Amino acid sequence: MNTGILSLLIVGAMVTLMVLGLPLAFSIGAVAVCLTLYMFEPSVLTMLVSRIFEMSLDTALVSVPLFVMMASILKKSGIAEQLFNAVHIWSGRLRGGLAVGTILANLIMAAMVGIVGAEIVTFGLFALPVMLERKYDYKLALGSITAGGGLATLIPPSIVFIIYGMITGTSIGDLFIAGIVPGVILCFSFIGYILWHCWRNPEAAPIAAVEDLRLSIRQKLAMQKSLIAPILLAGSVLGSLYAGIATPTEAAAVGVGGAVICAILNRKLSWAMCWSSSVETVRVSAMMAWLIFGAQTLIGAYTLAGGTDFVKNLMISMDLGPWGTIILINLIWVFLGCIIDWIGICMLTVPIFFPIVKSYGFDPVWFGVVFCMNMHIAYLSPPFAMSAFYTKSISPPEVTMTDIYSATLPYLYMTVVVTIIMVAFPSLSLWLPLQMR
Amino acid sequence: MNRMLDAIDNFNSTIGKAVGVFSFFTAGAILYEIFMRFVFARPTVWASESTAFACSMMYMLAGALVMREDGHMRIDMVHSKLTPRTRAIVDCLTYPFFVLYMVALLWAGTVYTFDSIAVGQTTSSAWDPPIYPSKMIMLLGMLLLLIQGTAQLIRNLMIVCQRKAK
């Protein structure tokens, strides 16, 4: 069979199974098995298993459960609440101050947590009630929580960068540093949007009641003490990584240690809390791992069937030039981001696109940032918007998915604009890693 | 029948939660390694490999727990709009594909594992542990996942039949 038709059949079969509700991990794997049996002998199936097994033993993958564990301990350590309070007390007189505070607190939290779900669920649980209590517009409240949580993908440590670095062999440390500038730019563009929106629609964000404003500067400064532990923790994790003395896995283990210390300082550490953190770690990392395994089998079988070369040649024969190819890749990612989650996209498309992009002389680290920006879009773009699902899980029942989608739409546009800027100006992402070398 | 299904659920939940111990082991072992390297300049030979093995076992054995809690990521746009009975029917239709994947992995995995046992394969590192135990755990994990999936199928079939009987 023609490889082109075969590729279309693969995509068709995968999408059909997914829409019918079979989990992504198994849909992808089942298609891989069908492809192998159709194209080759059953003995080739051993190759699929060996790909799964070798992936499960990858030492870089060990950092994923550790970062998940760090996030889940921090989530229960009460640190997020302190962060939010420390940041938002300055915002009493500012229209939209709570929403701005949410974004800023998310930015700081993102430097400790690499998982979007953990950020949204943690901040949503107390920032949303506070905002609604102050009669904030639903849309403003939901949007800032959903979009702010997404910053975890760009601000190191980020699981997206770890998986990308693992597949492409790019230095995870460099990727982490490269994500900082785009992450901060994105954060400030969100803040800019909120301020503009509140200036246009003052009723969307009432300012604080008088009693909230009465805190003296001294009291406010005292509350900043709670920022010390998070900043030290983020500093020790990222610092050990950038100084080159620790691998991402070791930095993650330091992070787990630091998170436990934070929990002890807040008197939140208990056996029950450790136990539930470890179960949560198992849940999240096993879910991710099986998705990775499924994608590993499919990309292995597809490469063996000549599919990877087919796509490569197809893209080269289209003769789009280096930048045309980059734009095409971005469009493919944005499209895929609407229907499947980032792990699937990363495992299935990056091995195909990466060699092409590299042969055009583009920087692998920059390409990683572009990928990450696209996944940021994927997190927000309906109908398969992971961030919106997380927000739904912590919202009052009367909030519908449609409400959340429309609330996040402006942030989605901002993200697209920042992505275009990052694509157009590679030096924005590459400047900081160059300084560090 | 129900009692057996519950037993499968409970067994897989217990296994999945028990492997949480590996996450503590991983964090602890790596912190210990960092400590030994920087304080005593005596890095361990086992930390990096043993944590990789621990994590591998964790992913494998917890697959069934995630399935029981419906935690494997899925697109539920269509799925969530269906009536429980139609949903059960659709799930029964997609089940053969899940089985195909698991049985293929189990069959090929058995060959893969036995080859490894036959030659007594090790990792050929400084620590040099045998590889096959971890491959056997992988097979066990796949088997547990298959059993959990089948338990779910039986539940779905029961939903389908129940309504018909009424």
What is the terminal separation of chain B in angstroms?
20 Å
- Tally of alpha and pi helices of chain A: 22
* Percentage of β-strand residues of chain B: under 5%
Low-confidence stretches of chain B: none
Q: What string, H for helix and E for strand, traces the elements of chain B in order?
A: HHHHH
Strands of chain B, total number: 0
Tell how many strands the DSSP assignment of chain A holds.
0
Tell me about the biggest sheet of chain A? Answer: none
The gross shape of chain A turns out to be globular
In percent, how helical is the residue content of chain A? over 70%
Q: What is the CA-CA span between the terminal residues of chain A? A: 49 Å
Provide structural commentary:
The complex is a heterodimer of chains A (437) and B (166). Chain A is mostly helical. Chain A has one domain (3-436). Helix content of chain A is 78%, strand content 0%. In chain A, helix 5 (79-88) packs across helix 6 (97-110). Chain A is globular and about 75 Å long. Chain B is mainly alpha-helical and 166 residues long. Helix content of chain B is 78%, strand content 0%. The model of chain B has no long low-confidence stretch (mean pLDDT 88). Chain B has helices at residues 2-18, 20-39, 47-68, 84-119, 132-165. The longest helix of chain B has 36 residues, at 84-119.
